[in-house]
Amino acid sequence: MQAAVGTISEKQRSFFGTHRSKNVDFRIEQLKRLKTAVLDYEGKVMEALYRDLHKSRMEAYNTEIGLSLREISHNIKHLKSWAKPSKVKGTIFFPFSKSFILCEPYGVILIIAPWNYPFQLIMFPLIGAIAAGNCAVLKPSEVSSNTAQAIRDMIGDYFEEDYISVVQGGAEVAQQLLEQRFDYILYTGGGSAGKMVMKAASEHLTPVTLQLGGKNPCIVDNDIDVEKTARRIAWGKLLNSGQSCVAPDYLLIHREVKEKLVSSIEEKIVEFCGDDIKSSEDYGRIINEQHFNRLSEYLEEGEIILGGDTDPEELYIAPTLIENVSTNAKVMQEEIFGPILPIIEYSEISEAIAFVSNRPKPLALYIFSNNEKIQQRVLRETSSGGVCINDTVVHFTHTELPFGGVGDSGFGKYHGKSTFELFSNARSVMKQSVLLDLKTRYPPATEIRLKMIKRLLLK
After folding, report:
1. 217-404 — its CATH code?
2. Which among 161, 66, 169 has a CA at the least distance from the CA of 119?
């Protein structure tokens, strides 16, 4: 039975007040418990992901379950070193003092997750929240209802509700949660809802991390390995049927390689999914009718050069490439979040850079080029949450790379140690010595004392 939404943060705060979650050994024990829970529920989560998104067992493990297990193991391995106070050098004014930075938990964390990677994108923040010593309230997406229920069952079986709890429901439940006081909120989803989360958080001056996605450009130079480039672009776009916040959203292709690359992408799609893509177990489905209809409208905004097949009964949309698209079309203004990939040609790299720079900063930016100067120029003259050179999506899987957006694509970074730091208050501590007490800093002010201070400060 789900606890009353209005009392959840209070119960969590009471648990946090016992200080049990601050103990590092307790945190490691809970991470190990979470790992056991994920292993125990692996089959049920896979089944739920298939029912929600038609994810194959391989994709479900690679992108959701396996990544979560690795993240848990990484936190268990490094937590004791992360949690140690960081020593800071003394100052010239107070040479006998001892200073350090102590990472303390914020308290009660609210994690609001999306439907596209409904398991992984709730597990990663939860792992960091536990590692940092917090309590957590999880709000999975109601859109991926089967996975939401599996998460609720798993957490309910393995954790005290006052420590970690799962709240299910739609927008009205999320709003009720946001009316409560939390110590930190991490939200992953669309920009419009992200603004509402931030506005609600401002009522309590609650710090927020927003992961909002965006239109991720994929710049393809003429100096490339066409086959490898096509394979990696096709894989990154087909993953979860394009319903990934880091999926390539549009291609900026040098006109000299466009024809070869499009032909090779078509070959790779067949290689991955066979001639009958619809019957492939390795190709997913659109999450619901609303998103299917939205994506179907995009197909009418350009010339289809590959794919375009749809089946509303199965929520199936084939991998599709389109060109001759107006920059004012919805498909070029909104995050696509589906297996549709617009193509725009360019002749000089400056054109591609200008196209990207004149638009909101994306969550991810992809560059395919063997030219080091081109790579460095794109890095120098553009801005994005993350960058991947000569591949797509895989930068997200690197435990040591902080993941997050910038500008319209969000703010706040997490993954690995970055999640631990995100959910920790870096508390500055200075322990002053009583052996020496220089009178220079005390009134009354004199010219001699001022000169001494100036000398010290300007050293």
Report:
1. 3.40.309.10
2. 66
Which helix (H) or strand (E) segment holds residue 203: the answer is none
Q: Check whether 1 has a pLDDT greater than 50.
A: no
Mean pLDDT of 229-248: 97
Are the C-beta atoms of residues 125 and 137 closer than 8 Å to each other?
A: no
- CB count, 10 Å around CB of 353? 20
pLDDT exceeds cutoff 60 at 437? yes
For residue 116, which amino acid is it?
A: N
320, 235 contact by CB (below 8 A): no
CA distances from 74 to 80, 100, 284, 418, 425 (A): 11, 25, 30, 12, 21
Residue among 107, 106, 103 nearest 11 (CA): 107
Three-state secondary structure call for residue 99: strand
Beta strands in 189-318 (DSSP E): 208-211, 217-220, 250-254, 303-306, 310-311, 316-317
Name the CA radius of gyration of the chain, rounded. Answer: 25
Token couple for 246: 């880091």
* Alpha-carbon gap, residue 421 to 102, rounded angstroms: 11
How is the chain split into domains, by residue range? 5-212+409-426, 217-404
pTM (whole model) above 0.90: yes
pLDDT mean over 120-145: 98
State the sign of the Cα–Cα–Cα–Cα dihedral 177, 180, 186, 190: positive
Tell the burial category of 254 from Cβ atoms under 10 Å away from its Cβ (0-12, 13-18, 19+).
Answer: buried
Structure token pair of residue 384: 């994005």
Structure tokens at 376: 């460095």
End-to-end Cα, the chain, rounded Å? 65
Tell me the CATH number of domain 5-212+409-426, given options 3.40.50.300, 3.20.20.70, 3.40.605.10, 3.30.565.10: 3.40.605.10
Q: Averaged over 40-60, what is the pLDDT?
A: 97
Amino acid (one-letter) located at 141: S
Q: Are 143 and 170 in contact (CB under 8 A)?
A: no
pLDDT in tens, 440-450: 888 888 888 88
Of the candidates 347, 305, 337, which has an alpha carbon nearest to the alpha carbon of residue 323? 305
